Amino acid sequence: MYNQFKSISLSHRNATLAIREQLALNEAEAKSMMLRLKDFFDVSDVLVVSTCNRTEIYYSASTDLNEEIIKMLLIQKGVSDLESFKAYFERFSKGENAVQHLFQVATGLQSQVVGDMQIPNQIKHAYQWSADLNMAGPFLHRLLHTIFFANKRVAQETFFRDGAASISYAAVELLEGLMPNPKVLIVGLGEIGADVCRNLAQKATTEVTIVNRSRDKSDKLADELGFRVADFSDIEAEISRADIIVSSIVRDEPFFSKEMMVRLRGMSFKYFIDLSVPRSVSPEVEEIPGVMLYTIDSIRSKADEALHRRLDAVPHVREIIDEAVLEFNDWSKEMIVSPTIQKLKGALEQIRKEELTRFTKNLSDSELEKVERITTSMMQKILKLPVLQLKAACKRGEAETLIDVLNDLFNLEKQSEKH
């Protein structure tokens, strides 16, 4: 099973946001994709991961289906230019590479912002989708639980998840500390603005309104996140209504000016968080009583400090991953001999039962119970050494030789056919 595990990956490393948006899958689409894979191919242990930064499909199959699965995904998403889109994908055709990649993705080593705190939950959601469709077998169950345990170690033993290492997340951390349950207005839905919205979506107590010059873009994001939308033409009314205004609009000169704030006199206390370069909020707005401004420089400084701490922790995170992968590899190798162990147990149990039937006809119930206990104990002791030797052979990479010997010695293939 280990050698059959494979994956395809489209991520921020090779594709722009515009490309990633076209191929992102929501829960319904991800489940539909998994069911189609099951209908068209002989696959198991299917996991579909889709975030704003990546769309990935993991699966187990005896043959390499990466090209077919990429084609199926592109067709499902309505892409007509298949050949040009194929170039954006990474392919992992060896089990060890696919497993290592999933570990790195799930811990945040492959994230656009190193140590992304959302990725463990996103992987858990993907795992739940697989479980819902009965497409997570013993291999995937064990792999994901090993990853979750490694993630717990990363959180407890390193600084890899400390602080807000992205501008958007640092902005959200800042506004959370300004006041309880604020009304937040997001102006501008470029990459940073959209990221702020997605981070805010995790905060159930925050009321968010989004405004963008393109209403289509704001409507689409609002549908995804459950936010309120307002027209750009109503921007001044929305400023009056909001407690915190987060701006990431692109302009040559500030959009939010002192004159605008004077025009909106009678406002309550306001906070501006300016994430634009060049600045979209004039520094002069702070001359208005009750208005405070935070610029991208102060937020970036906080994010950079957190990012340095995370980068310093990367070697320790890699050590944790290597230990977890090694443990999982040992388990996977033992899975190879599990059928042989079960056949051997079955063959010996059949011999035990047949012999008991022959020689215990005249025994009383108490005598029969004693014989059952004795023979069962003998069988377990006989099995112990072959099982230990099989598991040791797995670690040495010599399991196949011992499997053949046991099959010949106990005629296991015939025994399994017979019973």
TrEMBL record:
Coiled-coil residue windows: none
A single GO BP: protoporphyrinogen IX biosynthetic process from glutamate
Documented EC number(s): 1.2.1.70
Domain Tetrapyrrole biosynthesis glutamyl-tRNA reductase dimerisation stretches: 317-412
Enzyme class: oxidoreductase
Active site positions: C52
Transmembrane segments: none
Described purpose of this protein according to its UniProt entry: Catalyzes the NADPH-dependent reduction of glutamyl-tRNA(Glu) to glutamate 1-semialdehyde (GSA).
Entry protein name: Glutamyl-tRNA reductase
